[in-house]
Structure formats: C-alpha cells, structure tokens
C-alpha cells in the first residue's frame, strides 16, 4: 500500500485515459466533426463537453444521429467508428502532450509495484500508440477499452472488468475495491467508478469542481498527489 498526498491510501490504481493522461478530447472532437459536419450532424464544442465527452465512439455516433432523428444501422455505425479511428490516428501524429504530473505519477506508482490499469471509452487503437509515445505502456497490467463493454460510462461494467482483470493479472497483490482508486475527470466516469465500489480521485482537467462532487477527492492537477509514501 502507498499513501498519496492528503492521506489517500491505495493498493491499486485505475486511470481513465482521455482527460486524465492526455488531452485528447479536442482531437476526438475534431475527428467527429470531420465525419459528421458533411452529413449535417455536427455539434458545437459546448455540446460535446455537455453531452458527448463521457461517451465512447459508438454511443457518440448513436447520440448524434438520434439528436437529428436519423436512423443508424449497425453496418454504418461500424464504418463510422472505423473512419473516425483512422482520422484520429492522423491527428495524433501532429503531436500529443500528457497532462502535468501524470507520467511521473504513473511511473512512480509502477516503481512502487502497485497494480495499474486503464479504463477508457476510447478504442484500444487510440490508446496504445499514445502510451508508446509517452513511454508508459509497460507500466499497465491491463487495459479496458471501448471494445470490451456494451455500454459506456456511467455504466459501471468497464470498471468492474478492469478491477477483475487486475485481480487476475496480479493474484499475489493484496487489494480490494475499497483500496483501489480510479482517477477520473468526468461526472460519468466518477459515477461508473463509484458504482463499481472504488474510491475516486477527480482532476479538474475537463470539468469544474462543482460538477465533480461525487468523487472521494478532487485535485486541480495530478501533480498534487505525487507525495507518495510506502506503508
């Protein structure tokens, strides 16, 4: 077990990806608009933050079509997801930056031998190249992505799967849901992690504090949790 700043005691950590490790939300928004604008289905950045940010690609496209009263069959949805993923890969080649403190936090927790996972609504093909760019891919025991669940956050299934995978991959480690911390940036993510029985550290990268009140702890930057002490 390690004790983080403000006496936050943890034995395992599950990170959200977008909005926690990297600021990819504007890049996802750009990719969505390149696909949806020509179809007359685009939406504003404010709408993205309010409605779409917590969704995975599948649910985001379904919501965009639903909002305009247009039917979307499974075949077209699959094609849209693939097209958006390809556009996103092109966009991230233009450069990506991690949030302050997060790479140091990941590497420090890994060095302390804590089980670490990612639980994200992003596609695995979006996540892995960025982890490689940041040189932290090997720090994570498992990754739960959009392909692994039927519903996106706030449904808790993603966090339940991530916790179960951590238990399976690190059977020698002693941890429980109450000593596992999820790091999140959205109300939907906080709700999912809380329903899965986890503690939550919320970071105000995407939403103000007054919209993250369900979290166990809230910080303005992950630089604020770096005082790590082994217990």
Can you put this structure into words, describing what you see?
- The protein is of the alpha/beta class and 231 residues long.
- It folds into two domains: 2-23 and 97-230, Rossmann fold; 25-92, Orthogonal Bundle (DNA polymerase, domain 1), CATH 1.10.150.
- The protein contains eight helices and nine strands.
- The protein has helices at 25-36, 45-52, 57-67, 74-92, 102-111, 124-134, 157-169, 187-195; strands at 2-4, 8-10, 12-15, 116-119, 142-144, 180-184, 199-203, 217-219, 229-230.
- The strands form two sheets. The chain has a six-stranded parallel β-sheet with strand order 5-4-3-6-7-8, with helices on both faces.
- A hairpin with a 3-residue loop joins strand 1 and strand 2.
CATH superfamily heading of the largest domain: HAD superfamily/HAD-like
Overall pLDDT confidence: 93
Overall structural domain count: 2
CATH fold field value of the largest domain:
Rossmann fold
Q: Give, in spatial order, the strands making up the sheet with the most strands.
A: 5-4-3-6-7-8
Report the order of strands and helices.
EEEHHHHHEHEHEHEEE
**How many beta-strand runs?**
9
**Contiguous helical run count:** 8
Helicity, in percent?
40-55%
Question: What is the end-to-end distance?
Answer: 5 Å
């Amino acid at each position: 077990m390690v004790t983080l700043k403000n006496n936050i005691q943890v034995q395992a950590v599950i990170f959200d990806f977008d909005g926690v490790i990297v600021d990819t939300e504007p890049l996802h928004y750009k990719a969505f608009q390149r696909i949806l604008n020509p179809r007359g289905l685009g939406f504003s950045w404010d709408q993205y933050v309010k409605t779409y940010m917590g969704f995975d690609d599948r649910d985001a496209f379904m919501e965009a079509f639903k909002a305009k009263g247009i039917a979307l069959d499974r075949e077209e949805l699959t094609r849209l997801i693939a097209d958006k993923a390809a556009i996103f890969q092109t966009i991230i080649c233009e450069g990506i930056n991690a949030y302050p403190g997060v790479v140091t936090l990941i590497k420090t927790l890994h060095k302390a031998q804590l089980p670490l996972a990612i639980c994200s609504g992003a596609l695995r093909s979006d996540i892995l190249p960025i982890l490689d760019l940041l040189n932290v891919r090997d720090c994570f025991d498992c990754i739960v992505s959009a392909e692994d669940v039927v519903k996106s956050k706030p449904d808790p299934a993603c966090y339940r799967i991530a916790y179960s995978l951590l238990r399976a991959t690190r059977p020698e480690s002693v941890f429980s849901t109450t000593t596992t911390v999820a790091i999140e940036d959205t109300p939907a993510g906080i709700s999912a992690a809380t329903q899965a029985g986890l503690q939550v550290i919320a970071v105000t990268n995407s939403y103000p504090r007054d919209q993250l009140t369900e979290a166990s702890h809230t910080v303005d930057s992950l630089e604020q949790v770096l005082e790590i002490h082994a217990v």
